[in-house]
């Protein structure tokens, strides 16, 4: 459970960056593995984006840009950011498929972009 929060934290950071354009590289070298292992942080971000708990500043930014990131399958992300976002989303999914599904259902309720998102998760493109 804590790992999910850490992953969401990292996805939040990358998602915020991806909303600023494809060449913004502040988080290109972000350590996704360290986030995956921090379940406490991951859970806090998960609760934030799911409206089940308080949000930090990063959490609020993530919540703001998450819909676009999921809707476009990280289209505006740099290649390095795509690797990190993909790794984090796959990590969230591996830690808790129900939470991963709940996240997707909240931010893509019509399932309009599931095929592209799943393709991104498989191929990285």
UniProtKB/TrEMBL annotation:
Keywords: Signal. Coiled coil: none annotated. Pfam families: OS-D (PF03392). The keyword Cytoplasm does not apply. Residues 1-19 form the signal peptide. It comes from the Eukaryota. The keyword Cytoplasm does not apply. PANTHER family: CHEMOSENSORY PROTEIN-RELATED, GEO07322P1. This is Putative chemosensory protein 13.
């Amino acid at each position: 459970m804590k790992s999910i929060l850490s992953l969401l934290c990292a996805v939040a950071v990358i998602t915020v960056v991806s909303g600023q354009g494809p060449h913004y590289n502040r988080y290109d070298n972000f350590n996704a593995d360290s986030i995956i292992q921090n379940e406490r942080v991951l859970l806090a971000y998960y609760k934030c984006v799911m409206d089940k708990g308080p949000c930090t500043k990063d959490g609020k930014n993530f919540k703001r840009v998450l819909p676009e990131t999921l809707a476009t399958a990280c289209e505006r992300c740099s290649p390095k950011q795509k690797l990190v976002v993909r790794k984090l989303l796959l990590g969230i999914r591996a830690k808790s498929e129900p939470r991963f599904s709940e996240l997707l259902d909240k931010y893509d309720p019509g399932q309009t972009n599931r095929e592209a998102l799943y393709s991104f998760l498989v191929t990285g493109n």
